[in-house]
């Protein structure tokens, strides 16, 4: 362990999208360093199992709520429940996201909305609901958002995601200044590829759609990122050790975006038929996950 195992003792951290992938990895990392962790997602069973798995390792430190972050009233009520039943949050990780690859000319308004509202509205609603309480009660707080290197480069075929993540980057810089006087810090991380099941089903659904953005051999360091590496960065930003850092987005990608292959530009060669196959494969994965949703 790089950091002291109790360095987050006394911290209470909400991680949206904490039942799977990176969010679950972050929940495990923060709980293993002494924090109480609250995880959100739309599938009760997935959340319950993730919390139970981590709690078997660290003791009763992880709690869950089924919340759709696109629903402001649900977000406000769920943040209120944490405050009332456990105590004030000290940190928030805006990590939940939706995404899939698609030619932009073919995206339906609902497809655009599904991605943009989850990434942008969800992060704003959750940040505002925690931030308002911190300000009213004179408490410090730390917000860390999980962005992506497309905020620097853009990326074809994932345009709503690149746009919405850039908006959350703007929120990070803006509120860092507006809320600094309350002791509230906002920072973000911009990871390169850290393969997770759901993300790879959405971004890499067929062999034909496997391009630079999701390939380890395109990373100058020659490998994917490891969860503990991302965990250590997020831990630092959530901790009191980063008290003078605010408004920053830190890239963690082994040099990926500087070498250029971090986007989906390689999909320019996909035919209409290959796109239809990719869409069918991604939608089948979505439908399987949607059948498990509780909210
Ligand atoms: C350098 C490496 C970087 C990697 C960066 C990674 C970034 C990420 O963010 S990966 C995160 C991936 N994880 C997820 O997406 C998890 C959440 N996903 C979901 O909830 C679903 O998969 C969702 C994205 C499809 C959204 O679900 P929901 O809100 O329930 O939306 P609908 O199923 O009702 O669909 C809305 C709309 O979108 C159209 N659509 C869905 N999938 C596709 C697709 N693969 N291709 C084209 N269009 C799609 C769907 O047809 C609906 O539109 P209408 O048909 O017009 O109703
Ligand atoms: N994996 C990677 O290489 C990279 C990932 N990222 C970012 O990291 C974050 C995590 O991605 P990753 O772990 O890979 O992917 P996952 O799909 O595993 O994580 C997304 C999570 O968001 C939750 N979620 C989606 N929509 C909602 C909603 N409306 N309300 C509440 N929760 C929701 C999902 O749970 P449920 O479906 O149950 O609601 C899921 O747990 C994302 O922000 C992604 O953009 C950035 C760069 C690279």
From TrEMBL:
GO terms for biological process: fatty acid biosynthetic process. It is found in: Peroxisome. Pfam families: adh_short_C2. GO terms for molecular function: trans-2-enoyl-CoA reductase (NADPH) activity. Its main location: other. Keywords: Fatty acid biosynthesis, Fatty acid metabolism, Lipid biosynthesis, Lipid metabolism, NADP, Oxidoreductase, Peroxisome, Phosphoprotein. The keyword Cell inner membrane does not apply. Its EC number is 1.3.1.38. The keyword NADP applies. It comes from the Bacteria. It catalyses: a (2E)-enoyl-CoA + NADPH + H(+) = a 2,3-saturated acyl-CoA + NADP(+); (2E)-decenoyl-CoA + NADPH + H(+) = decanoyl-CoA + NADP(+); (2E)-hexenoyl-CoA + NADPH + H(+) = hexanoyl-CoA + NADP(+); (2E)-dodecenoyl-CoA + NADPH + H(+) = dodecanoyl-CoA + NADP(+). Participates in chain elongation of fatty acids. Catalyzes the reduction of trans-2-enoyl-CoAs of varying chain lengths from 6:1 to 16:1, having maximum activity with 10:1 CoA. Has no 2,4-dienoyl-CoA reductase activity. Belongs to the short-chain dehydrogenases/reductases (SDR) family. Interacts with PEX5, probably required to target it into peroxisomes. This is Peroxisomal trans-2-enoyl-CoA reductase.
């Amino acid at each position: 362990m790089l950091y002291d195992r109790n360095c987050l003792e006394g911290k209470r951290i909400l991680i949206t999208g904490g039942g799977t992938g990176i969010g679950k990895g972050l929940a495990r990392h923060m709980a293993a360093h002494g924090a109480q962790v609250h995880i959100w997602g739309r599938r009760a069973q997935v959340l319950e199992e993730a919390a139970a798995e981590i709690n078997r390792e660290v003791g009763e430190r992880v709690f869950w709520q089924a919340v759709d972050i696109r629903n402001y009233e649900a977000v406000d009520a769920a943040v209120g429940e944490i405050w009332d039943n456990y105590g004030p949050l000290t940190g928030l990780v805006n990590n939940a996201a939706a995404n899939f690859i698609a030619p932009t000319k073919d995206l339906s308004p609902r497809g655009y909305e599904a991605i943009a509202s989850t990434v942008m509205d969800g992060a704003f609603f959750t940040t505002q609901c925690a931030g308002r309480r911190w300000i009213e009660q004179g408490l410090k707080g730390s917000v860390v958002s999980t962005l992506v290197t497309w905020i620097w480069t853009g990326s074809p075929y994932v345009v709503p995601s690149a746009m919405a993540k850039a908006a959350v980057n703007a929120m990070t810089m803006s509120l860092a200044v507006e809320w600094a006087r309350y002791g509230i810090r906002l920072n973000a991380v911009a990871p390169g590829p850290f393969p997770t099941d759901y993300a790879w089903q959405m971004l890499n659904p067929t062999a034909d759609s496997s391009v630079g953005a999701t390939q380890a051999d395109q990373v100058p360091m020659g490998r994917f990122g490891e969860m503990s590496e991302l965990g250590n960065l997020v831990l630092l930003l959530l901790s009191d050790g980063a008290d003078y850092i605010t408004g920053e987005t830190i890239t963690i990608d082994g040099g990926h975006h500087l070498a250029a292959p971090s986007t989906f530009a390689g999909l320019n060669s996909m035919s209409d038929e290959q796109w239809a196959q990719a869409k069918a494969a991604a939608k089948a994965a979505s439908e399987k996950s949607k059948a498990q949703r509780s909210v």
